[in-house]
Design goal:
The complex is a heterodimer. Chain A is mainly α. Chain A has 4 helices and no strands. The radius of gyration of chain A is 15 Å and the shape is globular. Chain A starts with a helix and ends with a helix. In chain B, 58% of the residues lie in helices and 10% in strands. In chain B, the strands form 3 sheets. Chain B has a 5-stranded antiparallel β-sheet. A 3-stranded antiparallel β-sheet of chain B has the order 5-6-7, covered by helices on one side. In chain B, a hairpin with a 2-residue loop joins strand 3 and strand 4. The two termini of chain B are 122 Å apart. At the A-B interface, helix 1, helix 2, helix 3 and helix 4 of A face helix 1, helix 12, helix 13 and helix 14 of B.
Chain lengths: 110, 387
């Protein structure tokens, strides 16, 4: 519940204050958000599996974000930033889907 | 049931292996695992036995009361589970036995499933963070859903409603706050120019060409309008010019017609005629001479002399345009003085003729002569401009 409140609060604050993202950070924010979403879905699934661990969640959340941003950064340096970020998004999308499928099985038993 | 559980147990093991600090969270898991593990324990006891030799040092004394130990072990069981996971079973066995006799027993019981069922599933999914959501997850959920159907929804609801202010909840809330912030910011940022950002290259090309076309069209329109403006400006300029010229012409004609006052260089002729010998004919001669010499405007006393001016001898005066003019006459003439004066003074000219009549003629050449006597403009009744 507190977690959900945190999410809602974050969205509300983001909408209200609409902070300006530094130009250098701009390409990484969407990737980081997708990575964090993956971590959140993974955490939700772990929660439903009954093996949720906050420490693992924190570590996976942060490492997901950092690694995703690093990959995109590396891609930018190599000149394939767009393709690499697409790849990262695809990978995270697949993971999110599989996690969502697992969560769905938990909740709807189907 | 036991088989399905085993993967779960295995998971627990993995979790423990990853997070030695899992104390708070890890604790409940063993509880779940233990009940399952025990029934399943006996069969795999053989492998478990194989391990028991490892903890022999402290384990031996604990082993004898296994039957009693189980029920007792339940409560303390979790503790060793939390503390002992990573370091290794042998180590845990050696360390734990002193505290909890029962714990080591279930513990060794769990590992066996791992080698049997776990590794194939686990190994692929074993990427650092993705452990929970690893590849192995696809196979497991079905098993979980069947084994404990209500847990999914119930767990979700129970997790949702009674809000718990635990450390985990707060940390997760903080992370989700960051995520929400990022989401909102990114969505807003993407929405600003989303129309173009999401467009395909061909669409962009089309939009660009459209814009180019529009720019060209607007440029053309601007050129047309500017041309029109220039034309209007020049035309209004021309109109103004024409108006000015008309006014000037009107004034010039007015000077000739006597409807406006005039000023300029000229001469001033005074004819004093005490004898009254100077009549209309003499005046007309003088005026004709001045006209021939280029006089542009003149007046005699207060009467303007124009083309249609008439000179008639009156009883005692001369009637100019019907107006009686008294002597002495004063003729003010605007024209080129160097032409006018000699024209009057030529031998046998006006001056000599007048002086022969006994009059005195004085010709002055002032700097400026003003002809301010006016005639009223006459509208022709029949003649109309043919231009």
């Amino acid at each position: 519940m507190i977690a959900v409140l945190g999410l809602v609060l974050g969205i509300v604050v983001g909408v209200i204050t609409s902070p300006v993202v530094p130009t250098g950070m701009e390409p990484y924010l969407p990737i980081a958000v997708v990575a964090a979403l993956d971590a959140v879905f993974g955490g939700l699934r772990a929660r439903l599996d009954g093996k949720f661990d906050d420490k693992v969640f924190v570590v996976s959340f942060l490492s997901n974000v950092v690694v995703a941003a690093l990959i995109v950064f590396l891609g930018d340096q190599l000149g394939v930033g767009a393709q690499l970020s697409t790849g990262v998004v695809v990978v995270f999308g697949i993971r999110i889907f599989s996690n969502a499928a697992s969560i769905r099985r938990h909740i709807f038993r189907a | 049931m036991t088989e399905q559980r085993r993967p779960g147990d295995h998971r627990d093991d993995r979790w423990r292996a990853e997070g030695p600090h899992q104390g708070p969270d890890g604790a409940p898991r063993p509880e779940r695992g233990d009940p399952d593990g025990r029934p399943s324990g006996p069969p795999p006891a053989a492998p478990g036995d194989g391990r028991r030799p490892a903890p022999p040092t402290g384990g031996r004394p604990a082993l004898p009361p296994p039957g009693m130990g189980r029920p007792i072990a339940r409560t303390p069981g979790p503790r060793p589970a939390a503390g002992a996971p990573g370091p290794g079973r042998p180590g845990s066995a050696s360390a734990d036995p002193g505290e909890v006799p029962g714990a080591p027993a279930p513990r060794p019981a769990e590992p066996p499933p791992n080698p049997s069922a776990g590794p194939p599933h686990r190994a692929p999914g074993g990427d650092g963070t993705g452990d929970r959501d690893g590849a192995g997850g696809e196979a497991r959920p079905g098993a979980d859903g069947e084994s404990k159907p209500p847990t999914g929804r119930d767990a979700l609801l129970s997790g949702l409603w009674p809000p718990r202010f635990s450390r985990a909840q707060l940390i997760v809330a903080a992370l989700l706050f960051v995520l929400g912030l990022g989401l909102a910011v990114q969505i807003r940022a993407a929405g600003e120019d989303g129309a173009l950002r999401g467009a395909r290259p061909e669409d962009l090309v089309r939009i660009l060409s459209d814009l180019d076309e529009r720019t060209k069209r607007l440029d053309d329109e601007r050129g047309t309008l500017e041309r029109q403006r220039t034309e209007l400006e020049t035309s209004s300029d021309q109109e103004e010019e024409v108006r000015k010229q008309n006014r000037e012409r009107e004034l010039q004609l007015g000077v000739l017609a006597g409807t406006v006052a005039a000023t300029g260089p000229g001469i001033d002729v005074r004819i004093s005629d005490p004898g009254g010998a100077v009549g209309a004919d003499r005046l007309l001669d003088a005026v004709q001479e001045l006209r021939a010499a280029g006089a542009e405007a003149m007046q005699i006393n207060d009467v303007r002399v124009v083309a249609s001016t008439s000179f008639v001898d009156g009883d005692d005066q001369v009637l100019i345009d019907g107006e009686p003019v008294d002597r002495p006459f004063r003729i003010e003439v605007i024209g080129r003085p160097h032409d006018l004066e000699p024209a009057l003074n030529i031998p046998g000219g006006v001056v000599q003729s007048l002086e022969k009549e006994g009059a005195t003629v004085t010709v002055n050449r002032p700097d400026e002569v003003t002809v301010d006597a006016l005639r009223s403009a006459e509208q022709p009744d029949y003649a109309q401009s043919s231009s």
